[in-house]
Amino acid sequence: GNVPCNGMIIRNSNEVLVFDTPTNNKSAEGLIKFIKEKLHCKINAIVPTHFHDDCLGGLASFHKLKIPSFGNTYASAKFFGEGHTKDNIVGYFPSENILFGGCLIKELDATKGYLGDANVGEWSNTVEKIKRQYPTVKIVIPGHGAIGGRELLDYTIKLFKTN
Fold first, then answer.
1. Beta bridge partners of residue 141, listed in sequence order
2. 106-154: pLDDT as tens digits
């Protein structure tokens, strides 16, 4: 991609659930190899958080290995409303209070970034819904940049607030 991208691997014993693929199949194959050979885990599913290549560019590599695009590990993938795209979802891992926000959530001091498919008018409202839904979230992983806490939700809400 044009900027570094984040994903999330949820590990339960020797099984994982992956949120967002790398941006291309070659990088996705590297991730799959790492999970299998270094973590010694089976990939149960891949969950892309929206339709841009930074979330599903490497999906074919997972599908080639018959890894489905959904999971049975207890984590939720939920749509709260429009923002970065009309279909952006977030992933939440309740036992660890970890939210994977994908490109809907910005790192601290980030710019608004790519807005070509965005609904800027709804973005803050969508993130406010997420904040209310997960009041105990401790770790927030944005689509790009540094991981943080609830302050990333507040920053994103403020960044797109239209008063």
1. 100
2. 999 999 999 999 999 999 999 999 999 999 999 999 999 999 999 999 9
Q: How far is CA 40 from CA 15, 34, 109, in A?
A: 9, 8, 36
Two tokens, residue 28? 């996705």
Round to whole Å and give the CA distance between 64 and 21.
Answer: 14
Give residues with Cβ within 8 angstroms of 96, minimum separation 6: 138, 139
Ramachandran bin of 102, using left for φ above 0, alpha for ψ from -120 to 50, beta for the remaining angles: left
Which residue's structure tokens are 């999906």? 59
Enter the tokens of residue 117: 């498919």
Residue at token pair 């008063």: 163
d(CA 63, CA 56): 11
Q: Return the percent helix, strand and coil in the chain, to nearest 5.
A: 30, 20, 50
Could you identify the residue written with the tokens 């891949």? Answer: 46
For β-strands 89-93 and 98-102, DSSP reports them as antiparallel
* Higher-confidence position of 70 and 118: 118
